[in-house]
Amino acid sequence: MHPLRxxxxxxxxxxxxxxxxxxxxxxxxxxxxxxLFYPPSEVAAGNAPADRNIRLGGMVVEGSxxxxxxxxxxxxxxxxxxxxxxxxxxxxxxxxFAEGQGVVAExxxxxxxxxxxxxxLAKHDENYMPPEVAAALEGKSSAPADSLLP
Amino acid sequence: MWSFIHKLxxxxxxxxxxxxxxxxxxxxxxxxxxxxxxxxxxxxxxxYRQGNSYRIIYIHVPAAVVSLAGYYVMALAGAISLIWRxxxxxxxxxxxxxxxxxxxxxxxVTGAIWGKPTWGTWWVxxxxxxxxxxLFFLYLGVVALFEAYENKAxxxxxxxxxxxxxxxNIPIIYKSVDWWYSLHQPASIKFTGESAIxxxxxxxxxxxxxxxxxxxxLVVMMNMRADLVWHHRQSSWVRQWAGFE
Lengths: 150, 245
Known about the structure:
The complex is a heterodimer of chains A (150) and B (245). Chain A has 150 residues and is an alpha+beta fold.
């Protein structure tokens, strides 16, 4: 290769390497802020701030959803299979909100370290399959799965 | 091999070559696009949890995949332009930027449309979505920077540096869902091991991704051809092609 072009090639490589290193260090320094939510074990360990809004993400514990009979108030447990945190929310839940499914709740921790949520987002997982396959995996009939379809 | 690459740098040769490529790539891409869209939107089964709303992946995922790959095409053209000072590389870089911006825009908009019913929100500042927004701005930045210079050689140099600096964003977008806690789900298509998406839904998706790659190549090539004709409007090969001589 021509020495001038070789020099330019080094220049180009240097641009890519240095900018990658710079952005990499920034991302590393801000890693806690880039995370969208805290897992329940972090909240249970007291690593989440109690004086401002946080997001909590995890799985809704099976059988933990308690709905009020007179209002839209709901209470449920969110777990990462190491610890669970109780969440209270009043309002309409997203369609994909269900037991055993991912959820991200935004709100503030109260004195008893429950999350008083102002927004609930459903976290969808990466699995896509037809209802029959899902039913076969569950070992049940496809009727309940079909009823979820619009 | 080397002589082919050398020939690509020659405007009349590239113009003839790309004309032939467009001639067969256009019908093939349209055919794949139609088969993929028909298969994905009508034949593929509904999802067990999302029902029919998941079908937006047949637009969203191909647009997102090609917007990432297209960025590498643009940055590689930028590197070639910086090192070898080949005009054709400048033209390729300039042609790829608006196409990539449109694809990124499609991915962002379809993602928001899908996010509202599925997640319960249009927008959330998670790592995947935010880095995708940065990609959108990088593409637009290259388009704007190119137009900002009167001297096109200086413009190409500045755009090449900007696109090279931006390459760091591509692995960040790709790995963001694994490195950080994000609302966006991890990848369903896996290069190693079994994909998390059922085969009946995966095949039309792969067809659509192929079609979008074809579309990207086509639109970029046509952009380059239009640019070449304009730049060389005085030369005899363009005048011959246009039937003036």
